[in-house]
Amino acid sequence: MFAVAERGTSGGVPDEPGFSTALVVVDVLNPYDHEDADLLVASMAGVVPQIAQLVRRARDEEVPVIYVNDNYGHWNSSSGELLDIALNEGRHPELVEPLRPPQDASFVIKARHSVFYETPLEYLLRQLDIARIMLCGQVTEQCILYSALDAYVRDLRVAVPTDGVAHIEPELADAALRMMRRNMRADLSPAAECAF
């Protein structure tokens, strides 16, 4: 995987006064019944502990936690309904249960790759006075990459824990991380070194 030494400009540490960060957890309420799910499951199994730890740390540090999840065609879904589908009808509830959204987490439904595309996320971040998002979840070379780009063009700083994002294709994931670091100036660090 991507070499941790290659980081963004601030090495994962906020370096501006009054800096505010939100943890954005992407597409973890997943039934894993789609094409390429088996490849994703193998990667996701290795990142679930880091994502769960990031959520715990964010809550301990009073950092906003926002789950943004694909609706998988369930247009009237809430976080509870998507969680129920993933746990009770999905193929890998063991990957979903540890990432159950906390009661105080915000929840945004998306229908396309980017967490920003036709969602209220940008408005929510403005209401919370957020200047930086930390993206974790899945898929590195798809939703995480496109969301990082959309954040960057909105003048938000981006951080990505390199061991807190799951991939389908390892080579594409490595390329996506390099693109995020180079083109979007994303801070890339292991989850344990990521500062809110």
Order of helices and strands: EHEHHEHEHEEHE
On the 0-100 scale, what is the average pLDDT? 91
**What overall geometry do the principal axes of the alpha carbons give?**
globular
Percent range for helical residues? 25-40%
Please identify the top-level CATH class. Answer: Alpha Beta
User: Largest sheet, described in full?
Assistant: 7 strands, parallel
Radius of gyration, Cα only, in angstroms? 15 Å
Number of strands: 7
Strand portion: 15-25%
> What would you give as the CATH superfamily?
Isochorismatase-like
Q: Please state the second-level CATH architecture.
A: 3-Layer(aba) Sandwich
Return the structural class. alpha/beta
Total discrete domains: 1
- Poorly predicted runs are 1-17
Number of helices: 6
